[in-house]
Amino acid sequence: MSKHTNTSESNTAQQQLHLQTAISQPIRQAPQYIHTVQTPIYRASTIIFKDTDALNNRHWSDDYDYSYGTHGTPTTYNLADQITHIEGAKYCLLAPSGLSAINLVNSALLNTGDEVWIPDNIYSPNHDHLVALQQKYGVVLKFYSPTDVDSIQFSAQSKLLWIEVAGSITLEFPDLATLIKKAKAHGVTTALDNTWGACLAFSPFDIRDTNNANKSNDSEKLAVDISVHALTKYPSGGGDMLMGSISTIDKKLHLELLRMHALQGIAVSGDDCAQISRSLSHMALRYQQHHQNTLQLIPFLQSRAEFAQVLHPSIVSHAGHQHWQEICTTGLGAGIVSVIFKAEYQLEQIQQFCNALQLFHLGFSWGGPTSLVMYYDLKAIRKLPTPHLQDGWLVRFCIGLEHADDLIKDIQQALNTLQN
Ligand SMILES: Cc1ncc(COP(=O)(O)O)c(C=O)c1O
Fold first, then answer.
1. What confidence tens digit (pLDDT) does each residue in 228-277 have?
2. Residues 93, 135: one domain?
């Protein structure tokens, strides 16, 4: 059977073939004129070349040059284009999870002897990946305090600075503008984990230089070099999907990352991309609601005697509150709030509290409709002193899209079990 151009021709051709042959051949090609609201789903390992010229002239870095499933399809590039747009970037790569996007940055940029600086509140699997690179390949890992830019002392070996805004679990909001300027002054590449802000709280490639003397709105804008986003969270919005993105504005850097992306065979499925593309149009509405629900919970949490501290960037006493105000001019702050129980509460009571919750479920991740809870031993996860944090077990609430009143009642009844 020859290449098919229309269905009636191909049906006739198929009739002359054995069924097993006909059923193994591609049949229908989408016509140019069909236009649907959602992007069609292309599933491909093999991509069929039109002819030998197309085969021989393909180029690995051309994203309209479809040549193999790992390279991408119109469905995967559609999502990459959407993410490029919302990040305010120029280039975007997709990876099968947020963690694999993080790992791509680490493995593409770091060589033996290079220093990588990470905040003490970093997403812990990123830390664990860097420890593995340190042990296997001699990358040098350095920690800085998310509340103190001066705790970074770059050297000639410094290569990469990771930034988390707000930091994982304890949500400190760093001095983003100073971090970027300090890294740029030393030729260090900045990689932001932009999952919390989701491109809605602030724009990673268009950040106000808040330390500029006059602090006017038209003050100089700053940009990170790389923005990594766990699309698993708010972009997916369902709690049922895994994906990550790596966005950049610099072509040379993008090509460096793309090269490693291709070498490692990093690829995402068309089905997953289509689901996330579909969810993106209502991400801003959902993010607003997660944020509003969280703001409604905060006064209640602050009123409870069981908690020594409530952690959220909107709270005036929170570490980095002023930076949050200056950077997140949208006033948004995602749907995560943590509490530190008073030190007298023991592990068994913390577990009793988590088990008593009915609407908050024990689980990692966030960004879906269902509220989640997780408990942490701060002393076990932090390396540097944390004078801004009280002693005690930390419980993180990831606020879903339920009604805030129901969530408050749920926490109330779970706290009441501690009195019994
Ligand atoms: C801040 C942050 N970055 C990255 C990730 C990794 O995303 P994924 O679960 O898609 O690997 C997570 C996941 O919890 C996260 O919280």
1. 999 999 999 999 999 999 999 999 999 999 999 999 999 999 999 999 99
2. yes
> Could you tell me the residue range of the domain that residue 263 belongs to?
69-280
Neighbours of 379 (CB within 10 A): 11
The tokens for 121 are: 């509140």
d(CA 244, CA 234): 11
Point out the ligand 1 atom lying closest to the alpha carbon of residue 97: 10
**Ligand 1 atom nearest 102 alpha carbon:** 4
Q: Are residues 213 and 111 in the same domain?
A: yes
pLDDT tens digits, 291-321:
999 999 999 999 999 999 999 999 999 999 9
Residue 56 lies in a domain: no
Question: By alpha-carbon position, which residue is closest to atom 8 of ligand 1?
Answer: 98
Residues 132 and 228 in one domain: yes
- Binding-site residues, ligand 1, Cβ < 6 A: 97-99, 123, 168, 193, 195, 230, 232, 242, 244, 364-365
124 with 154, same domain? yes
Regarding whether 269 and 287 lie in a shared domain, the answer is no
Task: Say how many C-beta atoms besides its own lie within 10 A of residue 170's C-beta.
Answer: 25
Same domain, yes or no: 106 and 252: yes
Helix axes 270-280, 74-87, angle to 10 degrees: 40
For the stretch 36-70, pLDDT in tens is: 899 899 999 999 999 999 999 988 888 778 899 99
* More confident site: 310 or 29: 310
* Domain count across the chain: 3
37: how many CB neighbours lie within 10 A of its CB? 6
233 and 351 assigned to the same domain: no
112 with 243, same domain?
Answer: yes
Structure tokens at 181: 């300027």
Predicted pLDDT of residue 31: 81
